[in-house]
């Protein structure tokens, strides 16, 4: 998208109701209280990772503010003209400002903020509130941030600005200080797993996706579950091969994996989750905590063989390799060393 205008459309499937937002009771409770007491701030900073409900909360807030017949539970009705416009993504009083170009460093530009400022000179079209979501606010370039600061310093009536960012350090302190901060937590893996199963993922897929999601439902939904399980099976078979310790096998494995650093990183994560699962079982943890519950019989058999110190040293070797890849050290060399470390500890369990 290259338009400099604020984008007048909601997310693909706009969330109108707070009750559909998972795992953010603290942030939602705070907003519900502010709504009840009529004490909403004029600008909020929604902090948290992608895919945990910040944009959905902004939409639900806009729906609730402009709804003609909110429910006694404090939700929008979902059926009045304002709710319908919002659901259809055609509400002129709900704006999302996104980076104007998808280059290497997408930016929200000053023209977009100027457009917004011009708009705020007029009251909201529907007579209620105008809500603008800026996401991610870290994409504001210096000029845009300065222009936005003026709006925050003289907040227009019946306007609500919501800045979404991963962390406040991504923004100018002057912007942060003029917003009310609200933190959105990463979601617990068990909650993500349940939600994924509701959306049709198998228990094995859901467990693995949840373990790799970093607490972001959005991220878990975007990953391809079948490809991931196939990759996991490959990882387990590679671990077994490596443990036999043939130098030629190790070097061939490192050479294959080094071609794609992202894939190498996934290998390291999946292998780490395997040893983490063994430690969970060893400690008597419940199978619900496992990333590989479909391999439970195998995990149990290995766990009974009980070599926790070996699992820990493998975890340490995997995490060292992960750090080296992240630091752009030579991938093939990093993987060669890892392969020999894994081989040196004997059988793969
Ligand atoms: Zn309504």
- Rg, alpha carbons: 24 Å
Q: Which band does the percent of strand residues land in? A: 5-15%
* Broad shape: elongated
**Superfamily (CATH H level) name of the largest domain:** P-loop containing nucleotide triphosphate hydrolases
The total domain count is 2
Assembly category: single chain
| Order of neighbouring strands in the sheet with most strands | 2-3-4-1-5
Unreliably modeled segments: 1-11
Q: Determine the structural class based on helices, strands and strand pairing.
A: alpha/beta
Q: How many helices?
A: 15
Architecture overview:
The protein is an alpha/beta fold. It folds into two domains: 18-183, 3-Layer(aba) Sandwich (Rossmann fold); 224-344, Up-down Bundle (Zinc Finger, Delta Prime, domain 3). Helices cover 52% and strands 7% of the residues. The chain is built from 15 helices and five strands. The protein has helices at residues 25-36, 54-66, 81-88, 110-120, 142-153, 173-177, 189-198, 203-212, 217-222, 225-243, 247-258, 261-282, 296-305, 308-326, 331-344; strands at 43-47, 94-97, 130-134, 159-165, 180-183. It has a five-stranded parallel sheet with strand order 2-3-4-1-5, sandwiched between helices. Helix 5 (142-153) links the parallel strand 3 and strand 4. Helix 8 (203-212) crosses helix 10. The longest helix has 22 residues, at 261-282. The chain is elongated, with a radius of gyration of 24 Å. Mean pLDDT is 91; it is low at 1-11. The site of zinc ion has 9 residues, from helix 3.
């Amino acid at each position: 998208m290259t338009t400099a205008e604020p984008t007048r459309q909601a997310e693909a499937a706009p969330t109108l109701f707070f009750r559909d937002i998972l795992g953010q009771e603290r942030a939602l409770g705070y907003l519900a209280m502010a709504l009840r007491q009529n004490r909403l701030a004029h600008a909020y900073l929604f902090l948290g990772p992608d895919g945990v409900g910040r944009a959905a909360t902004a939409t639900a807030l806009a729906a609730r503010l402009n709804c003609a017949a909110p429910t006694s539970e404090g939700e929008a009705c979902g059926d009045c003209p304002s709710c319908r416009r919002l659901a259809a993504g055609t509400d002129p009083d709900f704006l999302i400002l996104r980076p104007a170009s998808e280059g290497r460093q997408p930016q929200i530009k000053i023209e977009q903020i100027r457009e917004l400022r011009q708009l705020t000179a007029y009251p909201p079209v529907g007579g209620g509130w105008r809500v603008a979501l800026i996401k991610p606010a870290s994409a504001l370039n210096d000029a845009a941030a300065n222009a936005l600061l003026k709006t925050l310093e003289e907040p227009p009536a019946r306007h609500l600005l919501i800045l979404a960012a991963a962390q406040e350090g991504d923004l100018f302190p002057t912007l942060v200080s003029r917003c009310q901060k609200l933190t959105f937590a990463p979601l617990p893996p068990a909650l993500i797993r349940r939600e994924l199963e509701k959306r049709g993922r198998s228990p094995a897929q859901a467990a693995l996706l949840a373990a790799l999601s970093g607490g972001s439902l959005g991220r878990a939904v975007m990953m391809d579950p079948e490809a991931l399980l196939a990759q996991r099976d490959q990882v387990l078979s590679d671990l077994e091969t490596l443990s036999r310790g043939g130098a030629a096998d190790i070097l061939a494995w490192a050479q294959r994996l080094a071609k794609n650093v992202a894939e190498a990183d996934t290998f390291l994560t999946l292998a780490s989750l395997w040893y983490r699962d063994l430690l969970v079982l060893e400690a008597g943890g419940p199978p619900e905590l496992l990333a590989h519950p479909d391999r439970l019989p195998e995990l149990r058999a290995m766990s009974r063989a009980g070599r926790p110190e070996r699992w820990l040293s493998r975890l340490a070797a995997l995490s060292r390799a992960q750090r080296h890849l992240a630091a752009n050290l030579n991938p093939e060399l990093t993987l060669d060393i890892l392969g020999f470390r894994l081989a040196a500890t004997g059988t793969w369990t």
